[in-house]
């Protein structure tokens, strides 16, 4: 709640209000004796009704801006997922001239992007009676679509006269607000939450059980746990990280739900965690009673200091400072393996400039700005107005928690009160970066499958500890709290089906090949297979399984370095991705013409599940193939090390001992670490290997020779 009204009421001058109303619209501002030089406007922002939906889920995250004379004087809090928000916030604004109306603008909050405009209205201050409270109902309008109904905003206002000696308060208030918003992109700490279990939750289904899951929200950040079927005492063992923006902490809202296929999920209960009451650098075990429901949730909450995340100008370069560079190199040296395993490396991104961007405005120009993302870390540049060749000259630094992360740089056009226009995007795997090289990247479309207009010049440096990076590969990936909602797409369903079919056909063809050996379709081949079968079975030992996989990896490696690369560019997947983008564009244009399948929620949910399962199965097969194809050399070398270790272990240690150690570890794991998060190291490893779709998305497009940095320098010299 904003409250800047701590001014003493020192003015008791007589004030005359002209109640006469004529055709000329006489107002109190026109009365000579009625202007003491400054007014105080007390506003209570009550609520909104029937606001416009701007999110895919049919809701919005509305907040309100108050402006006078083009300056923002108040911004409300954000009410998430609500078209009838209740704010009940008070603001005290000092007004110099009543001729300036109070503009009210409502926006839908979109983290990191331009917020969506939901409507505006204005309050004519000359029509207010002094010292008399008034309830005001304002109808929201969009100047571009005046016939559209966008809902209403309800206010309570009181206008009182003040002396002119406090005129500087207005400017101070605006500066303070802008300073807060400028700093809001940087966080001061990390909140790590481990969702352990639920106890005695409320039964929501007819069988006396529930299918519970939990939602977490801290400001704009939100996570959703996995669904635990048919239980009132679920064991989740999931971990989430939130960014902490406020020094005081903030409050995490937690809600428990019961999953119901085909209809709205049932509400089980809610609770909150007040972070300001928790000490830093310490793990707290919390057992929270669910309000408006039954049962408890058990959590582990840890608050830690901020990661290495910053924004600076190009003149401030930490890697060019020899002392700072040596300190960074020392922090990630091979000798400091066990010092904070989560701190894998350091990333510095110089966003220098862009050239030849797409025209987004009717003036033939654009107002571009950049969004730089690494997992859940998202930072923004300033906007360069009216320019297709902007220069940002900004440096962003990030803390690397997973070396297999993808750096995403997206260029948008700022569009005033409306949603930002997409201009282009690049996705760069950290392991593909060449340090210290200023490089021009061709901007891609939203699907990352083809070029769009323009290039962006980046200079990137990555410093990391290889051992920490390898160990991090064997634990689950960090979940993103900003993810697109699952959507049903005919093209996406077809693409995933074809991808899975190709993986299955590899197995089918292998089975046909083996069967042909038994049928003696080719006598020499069958004879060789028979001799190999006798030799392998007679001499088989368990260590030969990882040894064969090791030989396969080595064979492919020598094929690649000898120039006989058997990896082929997957043009089929690329073509399907481009077709999918065309379908998306068509869906955006015809969003109001929904098909029959979109009207039946249950069928749609089943289709989305099938679509996702096909994607997971196809991706699993493609990831195995790409591991042996050396698509990511770091991961293939890691696989070679692991296979060598397994081969040696299986060769020297009897199998019964290995199984015995595995079983003892499994049975005693919960006794030794009651709150340990279960994971499968092999699946975690494969999750870092890109699928064929991701290979297409991450591959770098060829640069037009006219955009070469070297050629540009020569042209400048000439």
Topology record:
Elements: E1 37-49, E2 62-68, E3 71-75, E4 86-95, E5 102-108, E6 116-123, E7 134-139, E8 152-163, H1 168-183, E9 189-199, E10 212-218, E11 221-224, E12 235-244, E13 251-258, E14 266-274, E15 283-289, E16 296-305, E17 310-313, H2 322-331, E18 345-355, E19 368-374, E20 377-380, E21 391-400, E22 406-415, E23 418-429, E24 437-444, E25 451-464, H3 466-473, H4 490-519, H5 523-539, H6 544-561, H7 571-589, H8 596-599, H9 601-628, H10 633-652, H11 655-672, H12 681-688, H13 692-698, H14 709-717
Antiparallel strand pairs: 1-4, 1-8, 2-3, 2-5, 5-6, 7-8, 9-12, 9-16, 10-11, 10-13, 13-14, 15-16, 17-21, 18-21, 18-25, 19-20, 19-22, 22-23, 24-25
Keywords: Calcium, Cytoplasmic vesicle, Endoplasmic reticulum, Endosome, Membrane, Metal-binding, Repeat, Synapse, Transmembrane, Transmembrane helix
GO cellular component, one term: synaptic vesicle membrane
Family: Belongs to the MCTP family.
So how many helices? Answer: 14
Cα-based radius of gyration, to the nearest Å:
31 Å
Question: Overall 3D geometry?
Answer: globular
> How large is the share of residues in beta strands?
25-35%
In total, the number of domains comes to 4
Domain C2: 20-138, 171-288, 322-443
Protein name: Multiple C2 and transmembrane domain-containing protein 1
Organism: Suricata suricatta (Meerkat)
Family: Belongs to the MCTP family.
Can you describe this structure?
One of its GO terms (molecular function) is calcium ion binding. Its main location: membrane. This is Multiple C2 and transmembrane domain-containing protein 1. With 718 residues, the chain is of the alpha+beta class. The chain folds into 4 domains: 38-162, Immunoglobulin-like, CATH 2.60.40.150; 189-305, Sandwich (Immunoglobulin-like); 322-473, Sandwich (Immunoglobulin-like); 494-564 and 599-687, no CATH class. It has 14 helices and 25 strands. The strands form 6 sheets. A 5-stranded antiparallel β-sheet has the order 17-21-18-25-24, with helices on one face. The protein has a 4-stranded antiparallel β-sheet with strand order 4-1-8-7, with no helix packed on it. It has a 4-stranded antiparallel β-sheet with strand order 3-2-5-6. Strand 13 (251-258) and strand 14 (266-274) form a beta hairpin. The longest helix has 30 residues, at 490-519. The radius of gyration is 31 Å and the shape is globular. Residues 1-37, 164-185, 582-599 and 709-718 have low confidence and may be disordered.
């Amino acid at each position: 709640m904003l409250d800047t009204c701590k001014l003493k009421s020192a003015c008791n001058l007589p004030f005359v209000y002209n109640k006469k109303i004529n055709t000329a619209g006489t107002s109190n501002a026109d009365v000579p004796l009625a202007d003491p030089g400054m007014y105080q406007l007390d506003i209570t922002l009550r609520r909104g009704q029937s606001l416009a939906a701007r999110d895919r889920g049919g809701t919005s995250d509305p907040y309100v801006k108050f402006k006078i004379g083009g300056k923002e004087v108040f911004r409300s809090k954000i009410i998430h997922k609500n078209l009838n928000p209740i704010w009940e916030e008070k603001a005290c604004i000092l007004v110099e001239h009543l001729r300036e109306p109070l503009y009210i603008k409502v926006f839908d909050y979109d983290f990191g992007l331009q917020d969506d405009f939901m409507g505006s209205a204005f309050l004519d201050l000359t029509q207010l009676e002094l010292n008399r409270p008034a309830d005001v109902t304002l109808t929201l309008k969009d100047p571009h679509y005046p016939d559209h109904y966008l809902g209403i905003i309800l206010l309570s206002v009181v206008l009182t006269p003040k002396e002119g000696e406090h005129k500087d308060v207005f400017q101070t208030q605006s500066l303070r607000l802008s300073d807060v918003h400028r700093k809001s992109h940087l966080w001061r700490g990390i909140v790590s939450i481990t969702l352990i279990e639920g106890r005695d939750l409320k039964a929501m289904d007819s069988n006396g059980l529930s299918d519970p899951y939990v939602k977490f929200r801290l400001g704009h950040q939100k996570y959703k746990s996995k669904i635990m079927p048919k239980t009132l005492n679920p064991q989740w063992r999931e971990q989430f990280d939130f960014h902490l923006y406020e020094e005081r902490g903030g409050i995490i809202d937690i809600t428990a739900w019961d999953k119901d296929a085909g209809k709205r999920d049932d509400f089980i209960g809610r609770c909150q965690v007040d972070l300001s009451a928790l000490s830093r650098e310490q793990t707290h075990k919390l057992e929270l009673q669910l309000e408006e429901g039954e049962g408890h949730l058990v959590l582990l909450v840890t608050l830690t200091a901020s990661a290495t995340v910053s924004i600076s100008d190009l003149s401030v370069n930490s890697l060019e400072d020899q002392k700072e560079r040596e300190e960074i190199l020392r922090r990630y040296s091979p000798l400091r393996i066990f010092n904070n395993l989560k701190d894998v490396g350091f990333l510095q991104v110089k966003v220098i400039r862009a050239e030849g961007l797409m025209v987004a405005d009717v003036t033939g120009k654009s107002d571009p700005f950049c969004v730089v993302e690494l997992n859940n870390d998202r930072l923004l540049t300033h906007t360069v107005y009216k320019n297709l060749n902007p220069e940002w000259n900004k440096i962003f630094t990030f803390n690397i928690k997973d070396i297999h992360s993808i750096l995403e740089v997206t260029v948008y056009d700022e569009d005033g009160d409306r949603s930002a226009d997409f201009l282009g995007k690049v996705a760069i795997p950290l392991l593909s970066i060449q340090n210290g090289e200023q490089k021009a990247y061709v901007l891609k479309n939203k699907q990352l499958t083809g070029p769009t207009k323009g290039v962006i010049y980046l200079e990137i440096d990555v410093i990391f500890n290889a051992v920490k990076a390898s160990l991090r590969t064997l634990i689950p990936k960090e979940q993103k709290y900003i993810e697109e909602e699952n959507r049903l797409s005919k093209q996406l369903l077809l693409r995933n089906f074809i991808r899975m079919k190709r993986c299955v056909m590899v197995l089918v063809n292998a089975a046909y090949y083996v069967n042909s050996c038994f049928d003696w379709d080719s006598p020499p081949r069958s004879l060789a297979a028979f001799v190999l079968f006798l030799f392998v079975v007679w001499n088989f030992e368990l260590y030969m399984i990882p040894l064969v996989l090791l030989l396969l990896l080595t064979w492919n490696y020598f094929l690649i370095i000898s120039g006989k690369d058997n990896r082929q560019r997957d043009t089929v997947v690329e073509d399907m991705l481009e077709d999918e983008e065309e379908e998306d564009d068509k869906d955006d244009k015809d969003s109001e013409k929904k098909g029959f399948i979109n009207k039946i929620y249950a069928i749609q949910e089943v289709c989305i599940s099938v679509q996702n399962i096909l994607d997971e199965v196809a991706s699993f097969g493609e990831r195995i193939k790409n591991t042996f194809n050396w698509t990511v050399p770091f991961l293939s070398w890691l696989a070679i090390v692991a296979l060598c270790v397994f081969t040696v272990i299986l060769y020297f240690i009897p199998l019964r001992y290995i199984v015995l150690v595995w079983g003892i570890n499994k049975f005693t794991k919960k006794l030794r670490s009651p709150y340990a998060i279960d994971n499968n190291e092999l699946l975690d490893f494969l999750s870092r290997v890109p699928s064929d779709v991701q290979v297409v998305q991450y591959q770098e497009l060829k640069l037009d020779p006219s955009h070469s940095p070297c050629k540009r320098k020569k042209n400048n010299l000439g």
